[in-house]
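ok trying this again, last paste got cut off
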Amino acid sequence: MHRTLDGQNVMITAKGIKQLQSMGRSLMPEGLLEGLTEQYLRDFFDYLRISQPISK
């Protein structure tokens, strides 16, 4: 399952994948999490797991 920027869930089937290739590196920029507290990181990753977009 993939979520688009507007919060819609999209199912991608194996037949829809033409090629799967490892990049050999992380997509996360180096040092991005430096200086963040453990609690902040826990809250951030909890937020990323929310299945519905948060409305204001």
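PB: full thing came through this time. The first helix runs from residue 38 to 48.
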